[in-house]
Amino acid sequence: MSQDFDPLDMIHYAEKIAAEMVQEMPDEEAVTMVRDFVSVLADWQPAVAAQRDDPTMLAITALSTTRLFELAFLKAYGYSERHVQAREAIEKALGEQS
């Protein structure tokens, strides 16, 4: 993990890539991608699967699940980065005691 890397930069870069990709994507491909992705989400997440019979709630649940992933990623990245920094500080302190 890069100590100087801001995870928000990664999110912004990913958004830029996705915006470019969707601009070039044919409508039929977009429909197929959404159906396939929602199917994968439903297989993985029971809350999504529970909404299969209600297209509006299925869409809302799938969208909130993907947003949850983004937020959880940022939280996990921050935790991991702090964990690595704490471990390095402990290792440095223990190394200085030797």
How would you portray this structure in words?
The protein is an all-alpha fold and 98 residues long. Helices cover 85% and strands 0% of the residues. It is elongated and about 65 Å long. The mean pLDDT is 87. It has helices spanning 7-24, 27-44, 46-49, 55-97.
User: Major sheet: size, sense and barrel closure?
Assistant: none
Q: How much is the average pLDDT?
A: 87
Q: How many helical stretches?
A: 4
Which stretches are low in confidence, meaning pLDDT under 50 for 5 or more residues running? none
Global structural class: mainly alpha
Residue share in β-strands: under 5%
**Record field, number of beta strands:** 0
Q: Could you spell the SSE succession in H and E letters?
A: HHHH
The value of Rg in angstroms is 20 Å
Shape: elongated
Oligomerization state: single chain
Cα(first) to Cα(last) distance is 27 Å
The helical percent reads: over 70%
Features:
98 residues, mainly alpha, 4 helices, 0% strand
Quick description:
The chain is mainly alpha-helical and 98 residues long. It has 4 helices and no strands. It is elongated, with a radius of gyration of 20 Å.
Secondary-structure map:
Layout: H1 7-24, H2 27-44, H3 46-49, H4 55-97
